[in-house]
Write a structure and sequence with these properties.
Elements lengths: L1 H13 L4 H6 L3 H35 L34 H27 L1
């Protein structure tokens, strides 16, 4: 039975619990530390997702300027995301214009590439 406590000890130290709290404190504190640790992980996951969305939107906004054939001005950068993580689906934008533009540009590029490769093969 003692082995179980020693095996769990490093995990609780990682969660921020002191050795004195772990060995001499109330056992209910372990439950609170686990819940707090899960909440911290959930918050970090949300923040990393938001960071990824900012990078994604930044790339979509600058994509028009990266077009080698017909460069255009980059789109205006987005406003910061709010901190309301529990948004309803109807509040979410249905489609992102930057994503649509990037997809259309990629499709056009791939089509031109296919046509160029096809003409090289037929003339050879």
């Amino acid at each position: 039975m003692e082995r179980i406590f020693w095996d769990a000890y490093p995990a609780y130290l990682n969660m921020g619990m002191s050795a004195d709290e772990y060995w001499n404190g109330d056992a209910e504190a372990c439950v609170a530390y686990r819940k707090a640790y899960r909440e911290r992980l959930k918050f970090e996951d949300i923040m990393l997702w938001r960071q990824g969305m900012y990078v994604y939107h930044a790339l979509c906004r600058v994509a028009p300027a990266l077009n080698a054939i017909k460069p255009k001005e980059p789109l205006e950068y987005i406003k910061p995301f709010g901190f309301d993580f529990e948004k309803k689906e109807e509040e979410q934008p249905i489609e992102d214009k930057g994503f649509e533009y990037m997809k259309a540009w990629a499709d056009s590029f791939n089509q031109k590439r296919k046509n160029t490769n096809g003409s090289k093969r037929s003339s050879a």
